[in-house]
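Hi R.,

Quick one: here's the ABC transporter substrate-binding protein sequence you asked about.
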Amino acid sequence: MQFNKRLGTTALAVSLVMTTALVGCAKDSNSDSAANSVNSKNAANATNGAKANNASQDAASSLDPVELSIYFPGGEQKDVALVEDAMNKLLKDKINATVKIHEVDWGNWGQKINLMVASGEPFDLVLTGAGDYSTYVAQGAFTDLTSLIDQYAPEMKAQMNPVLLSGTQINGKNYAVPVEKELAEQYGLMLNKDLVDKYHFDISSIKTLADLEPMLQTIKDKEPGVVPFWGSKNVTTLIPYEQNGSDPVPGVIPLDGTTKVVDQWETPEMQQLLQMMQEWNQKGLFQQDPATQKDSSAVDQAGTVFAEWSPLTPGKDKVQSQQSGHPLVQVALSQPYTTSADLTGAMTAISRTSKNPERAMMLINLLHTDPEVLNTLVYGVEGKHYVKVSDNVIKLPDGVAAGQSGYMPGNNWMEGNQFLDYLWDNEDPNKWDEYKAFNAAAKASPIVGFTFNADSVKNEEAAIVNIYNAYIDGLATGTMDYKKALPEFVDKMKKAGLEKVITEKQKQIDAFLANKG
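And here's the predicted structure, written out as tokens:
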């Protein structure tokens, strides 16, 4: 694997990600964070980008009309056709394209995209990220975007923090464009605030997942129509290790600053977590059939779940409250931590089967530079799904209840430049300052800038993914006896080549660190 020399040292990577874009933080409380740096750049450049796009209207009319498909996970939206029509009106003059939006429920997302890739089905834009990016690249699923970015997205490239593009390359090439958003990760819980208030739960006492159990038991005993905790495979992210490469494929490093790659399924922390999940399932603290009932959209909208695992950002509970129509409050179970996955956490790729990769890149460019196009995809049609309070603050139309607007896909973190997104009127107007503090508080991984290249172990990874899919939901929700199933799981992965994968990860990480400086 060829490592990016511009990110050759952890110090340099951290400086670029956490400091360069935060120049002057210590000197001036109004100076930019990484989020604010990108936001202010985009605020300053959005007009220029719009001018450039408007200047190209004549050129757009000379292009043949095409339809572009967009895939992202989420619940089905009643008014998606209205949003498509609104986007099409905008895109006709800009790039002479129309769009077809495909929302795939979270429970079927991975399987759906895997099948599309395996079958060679033509499609255009798709969400990818740290969990599957390197695997899909190794499979040849995505188009090399390196030259397309220069040719068809110069406005985007000019305003984007360069680390986002350079730090997400594989073998020096860009196979996806990262969403411009926060630059650190944090995991925790999203709780139903009405129930927190009703039972006077002291959420400040929740420091670990285990601390939640007495509250879950109260909900089970006193709220028979409410799911105490939505069981899912995502809970396994709460162990103190950093994933490298595809999420289903083991090979992590501890969060203590060391870089020895280990199989997380053989760590004591994972075994303790799986034991607790089995106990919670036996106590009836999960939804019915948690290993198969994986889509929580319905209970989220109905407000009939008390607690869920969630990735966290400042103010995310306010955003999700707006989307679900029920007040939520978030609880952090980890500290902010910056990894390479935070650069690749949400990205837009163009399928190798796309019939119009150039036009697809033009659309990505607009999603990063044109607020009207981006916010239509994210929030819907002005006057129908939201009304403006000010230039960048919106609220629901009068008479429309939260979560009932007809278009609330929750994809604001999945698309384009998040810092061009409108803010809801219930959000903190200082949200980007909170992002500044969030980014500044993050501990940096010693391998920021490293992206695992799975080319040499793609066959082993493919076999491991199949094994993972057979075990993960049962283990993580306690429907399998972990004492019996976990050794079987590990043994099958080892027979499929797990040790080769871990050795390759260690080799690449060691080479990355050796090249620093």
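Confidence is low (pLDDT under 50) at residues 1-55.

Cheers,
M.
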